[in-house]
Amino acid sequence: MAVIDFISGPGMADVIQSLKRGRVALYLAWSDTKARYRRSVLGPLWLTLGTAIGVVGLGWLWSELLKIDRATFIPSLTAGLIIWQVLAGCITESASVFVKQGSVIRNLQLPFFLLSLQLVFRHLVNFLHNLVVYIPVVIFLSVPVTWSTLLVVPGVFLLFLNLAWIALLIGLLGSRFRDIEYLLATLMPLLFFLSPVLYRPNYLPFSAHFIWLNPLSHLIEVVRDPLLGVVPPWYVYATVCGMLIVGWCITIALFNTRRNRIAYWV
Amino acid sequence: MSLRNQILRLGTGGKIESEAGHINLVTALRDVNLELADGDSIGLIGHNGSGKTTLLRAMAGVYIPISGKVVREGRLATVFEIGAGMDLELSGYDNIVRMGLMMGMTPTQARGCIPDIEEFTELGDFLQLPVRTYSSGMTMRLMFAMATSVEPEILLIDEMFGTGDAGFQEKAHARMRHLIGSSKIFVFASHSHDLLREYCKRIFFLDHGTLREVGLDALGTK
Questions:
Q1: I need a labelling partner for A158 at 20 to 30 A (CA). Which of A116, A183, B58, B197 fits?
Q2: What is each CA distance from A235 to A107, A164, A171, A219, in whole angstroms?
Q3: CA pair distance B100, A82, nearest whole angstrom
Q4: Are A72 and B49 in contact (CB under 8 A)?
Q5: Averages of pLDDT over each 10 residues, chain B, 222 residues
Q6: What whole-number distance in Å separates Cα of residue B115 and Cα of residue B122?
Q7: Contacts of A24 in chain B (CB under 8 A)
Q8: Which of A31, A108, A110 lies at the smallest CB-CB distance from B87?
Q9: What does the alpha-carbon distance between residue A143 and residue A136 come to, in Å, rounded to a whole number?
Q10: pLDDT band with cut points at 50, 70 and 90 for residue A208
């Protein structure tokens, strides 16, 4: 009975309908990106440039400060920053995704998850722009490119499948509780230091186990390890897949009960 | 709440209730029973806040009622707050495709609307410029054309006339008439008795969220 309710609920129907119109979300994400950089000469390449400058500056400074070899530090920092931008961007922006699109929700018949997908796709577009920065890093610092590098593809796939439920869940909560948007914006800098962005888990002077309690660490490593030419440890894949299943189940269960209220909240 | 406020409130709004102390709850519609079939064209009247827009949105499936249900069969189009979802930085053409997709068209269908909208809006080369550069009348033309570029079976319209200059007004009315003529069920909320008399065969009156049918005579005579 509970299974049938779960599958035939309004939230599940919304998600299925949104996935069928995935191309629409992709088009909207692309036109958002175009609109944002209209009238600038470099356009979306500003994203790339911004990341490049961040990497050069932080890479030089932190490798001096932490006294780490630049050839190992800069590739891991670059990959870390690129992935972190996606994570932080999706998490903070999704809290207000339904509220900002309130007029669309009240006037057009769009499935709500489509709006979350639009957000996630927009960050995917940004991510691909930023990934360009990583190419010279690979060439000049001779990062090993091996067969395990191909694991980037399933890694990115797992990352974005997870981000999709995270965006929907936070969007749902954020449209009812407006404090969540500010709470997340306040917490993100803290999470930045608690997540292995600037460092690798094995750099830590104390036990690295602690860092693995942070689910974001797993989402970062599942893409970063392959980028550095290494196969991620099995527990990273286990956690990421586990998050995917549990996350989606919880999100859809909640979305089933609350989906029809969102139009009243925004 | 003071007696004065209570009396003043009789003129507008739904019923405000309190739930669990802090949360204010507005009951916008109550005990609404309505069945419409092919060929019905309905006018909704009522004072500000009587629930006209809420009823239209419930019919469209935007607001899902807390008790009772809405059953709807047929392709739907709505003209509520037009222009929702438009991006002012994008060109007119980009916006046509964008809005079309949001209204549920495929990319090919959305691009298919372009010639019709070009012809109707008479915006010419302005369609290549960002919508930000348009005058408010031009923006209204584009928004109106986009909202009315579908041929629905069920058409729901919230008060929205008063578009552009005199010549365009005439064109807009002709387009509305065509759209209403081609749709099977038409519901129109308005304060304009002239328009209601022109487009609608039955009139419903909303009073603090309760609906009842009144004759066309309720609009008065010209």
A1: A183
A2: 45, 22, 29, 11
A3: 34
A4: no
A5: 60 64 77 87 88 90 88 86 82 90 86 90 90 87 85 84 71 85 89 86 88 81 57
A6: 11
A7: 101-102
A8: A31
A9: 10
A10: low
**Which amino acid, B207?**
D
User: Locate tokens 């058409």: which residue?
Assistant: B155
Residue A72 near residue A180, CB atoms below 8 Å: no
Count of C-beta atoms within a 10 Å radius of residue B170:
11
The CA distance from B26 to A247, in Å, is 34
* Residue carrying structure tokens 């927009």: A122
- B47, B50, B85, B51: which is closest to B65 by C-alpha? B51
The H or E element containing residue A97 is: helix A97-100
Other beta carbons within 10 angstroms of residue B75's beta carbon come to: 13
Q: What radius of gyration do chain B's Cα atoms show?
A: 19
Among the partner residues A36, A39, A109, nearest to B76 by beta-carbon distance: A109
Q: Provide the chain B residues 56-115 that lie in CB contact (below 8 A) with chain A.
A: 57, 60-64, 76, 78, 80-82, 84-85, 87, 89-90, 94, 97-98, 101-104, 107
Q: Give how far Cα B151 sits from Cα of B41, B142, B171, Å.
A: 16, 17, 17
Contact A125, A29 (CB under 8 A): yes
DSSP class of residue B130 equals B
CA distances from B213 to A112, B101, B175, B197 (A): 34, 37, 28, 15
Q: Which residue type is seen at A156?
A: V
Amino acid A179: pLDDT: 92
